[in-house]
Every structure is written in C-alpha cells, then in structure tokens.
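Incident log, support desk, overnight shift.

02:14 A customer reports that sequence design results differ from what the structure should imply. Their input is reproduced verbatim below. On-call engineer (initials T.W.) acknowledged and began investigating.
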C-alpha cells in the first residue's frame, strides 16, 4: 500500500512522527487501537511501527519513529531520507495488541517510544472511556518524552503518571501491580521494563497481561551462535543462523507455521519442544512451561540442537 507522507513533526528529541495518507486522499483501511504498520524504510528494511492516532480517523495514519543511532539504519533512514510528499510502501494495519472489550479497568505501562500504541488506545477512548484507566509513562528525561504536552494536559492529571528516570531513579511499579484485579494491563517498551512487569504480575491471571514488542525475530545478542532445529514430524533438519529465527528458517524451507507478532509477545507461534534446551526470549511462557514449549519467532537454542513438534 503506497502512502504519501503528508506531514513530519518532531515530537521529542529523537522522535519524529509521520502522517501518512492515500495519494488520492481517499479513506484508508480501518484499524483498531494497538495496530501497527509494516513499512519499507528508505534504506530498504522492513520495520513495524504502531499507529498512534485515533482509530476513528479514516483519512490518515500516524506513526512515530525513534531514531536509533546504534540500530541497523532503518530508523535513521526514516529520519534523514524521508520527506513530506514522498511515497512510503506500507502494509495494511495489523493488530497483535488489541484492547479487550469490557475490561473492568485498563492499566497502561509505556516505556519510551512504547507510548505509541497506548496513545492510540487512549485517544480511542475519547471523553467517554469504557472503563477507568491509568497510564504510567516512563522515560529518561522530559526532552526524550514524545507527546509530553498532550499527556500533561490538566484534564488527564488523574489518569497519567509521567516519570523521568534521569535524576529520579527508576519508578516503582509494584504498588500499581501488587493487587491483581479483573482489569487488564498493557505494557509496551524496552525488554527490561516488560520483563519487570511480567515478573511483577506472576500472580495475575495471565490472560489479563498484554505485551507489545517491536524486536522482530528477537534481535541479536553478542554471544548468539548458529544451531540446528529438527522438525520431528517430517524429520527435516535445518541450520538456524545468527540473526534469523526458527520461524523464518522453516518458512524459507516451505514449512508453514502460524504467527502474528513475530516478536515473542502474542503466543501464536507456541510450539512443543521435544528435545534440547531453549534460550527463551519471549514474554509469554511461564517458568513451568519452559522445558516443554518454545516460541519459535524469537527463541533460540542454548546448545547445538532442538527438536520441535512440527
Ligand atoms: Fe507472537 Fe511468536 S508470533 S509470540
């Protein structure tokens, strides 16, 4: 879906928002809060970005991109090579982080640029939210905080807590998560934040805790090594190189397997692990499941070989 960049706005020190419209100004396909687009950046990489505008808007999509100078160049090219009037190839919106209906309450926890899907959710509530909600927005400093003016609006004072770690230390989320209730928690941000929230919500019903990550394929760690994955049903064995997921490798060899987020947060690619020790990198599995289950979109092997039930 080629969309035209109709506006580019700096919304924080290293965060820029891009407004995308149909070149002929017609309506865009609808989306729901929490959705993302896949875009082909000017440098050629495919990247997922959450839509941060109100889903009721049909004339535009808005994404926000944090420039990552230590990344692989996708966000830098969005910042330096994309200009108003340019055409940006995008997918239709997909949602691996949907809001549940009829929640008793919503607790949003956003770290840094993880505010984008949450912003769309809050904007979708308008003046009549379906349930009480609270946002904990954790960032490094006011300068690095996207959409700060909007979220500091006095009308949101009772709903929004903004915490800057520079000079104040880390925010303690425990009081907000200590007492489980039938509300739902939505968390998007750096892996460390999501892991803390997962650890602090072990006593909640797991269906009430939702995560969104943009670390597609799980990213690369310095000590990653290639390993072999054997598919028990077909007997095929493939090498999984560094920088590629099990899911990507088996797809390249024509094996289909269901997936959605492809970043270890939704649970769609859950697969039974028959042999080997997994290096789990997802946000879905609980300790008691880790010996027998694996999320093949992000997790790897601790040793040379895994056997999975595919
Ligand atoms: Fe979502 Fe793997 S596709 S956890």
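02:41 Re-run completed on a clean worker. Output:
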């Amino acid at each position: 879906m080629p969309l035209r960049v109709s506006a580019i706005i700096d919304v924080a020190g290293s965060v820029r928002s891009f407004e995308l419209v149909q070149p002929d100004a017609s309506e865009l396909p609808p989306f729901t809060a929490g959705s993302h687009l896949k875009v082909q950046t000017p440098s050629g990489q495919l990247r997922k970005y959450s839509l941060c505008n109100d889903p009721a808007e049909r004339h535009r999509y808005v994404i926000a991109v944090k420039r990552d100078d230590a990344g692989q160049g996708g966000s830098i090219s969005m910042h330096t090579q994309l200009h108003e009037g340019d055409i940006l190839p995008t997918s239709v919106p997909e949602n691996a982080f949907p809001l549940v209906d009829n929640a008793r309450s919503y607790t949003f926890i956003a770290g840094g640029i993880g505010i984008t899907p949450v912003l769309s959710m809050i904007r979708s509530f308008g003046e009549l939210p379906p349930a009480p909600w609270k946002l904990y927005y954790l960032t490094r400093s006011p300068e690095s905080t996207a959409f700060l003016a909007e979220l500091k609006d006095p009308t949101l004072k009772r709903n929004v807590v903004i915490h800057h770690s520079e000079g104040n230390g880390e925010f303690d989320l425990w009081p907000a998560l200590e007492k489980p209730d039938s509300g739902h928690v939505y968390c998007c941000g750096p892996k460390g934040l999501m892991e803390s929230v997962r650890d602090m919500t072990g006593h909640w019903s797991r269906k009430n805790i939702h995560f969104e990550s943009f670390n597609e394929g799980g990213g690369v760690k310095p000590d990653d090594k290639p390993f072999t994955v054997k598919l028990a049903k077909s007997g095929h064995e493939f090498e999984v190189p560094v920088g590629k997921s099990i899911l990507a490798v088996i797809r390249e060899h024509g094996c289909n397997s269901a997936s959605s987020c492809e970043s270890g947060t939704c649970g769609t690619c859950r697969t039974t692990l028959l042999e080997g020790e997994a290096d789990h990198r997802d946000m879905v599995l609980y300790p008691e499941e880790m010996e027998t289950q694996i999320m093949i979109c992000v997790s790897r092997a601790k040793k040379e070989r895994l056997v999975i039930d595919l």
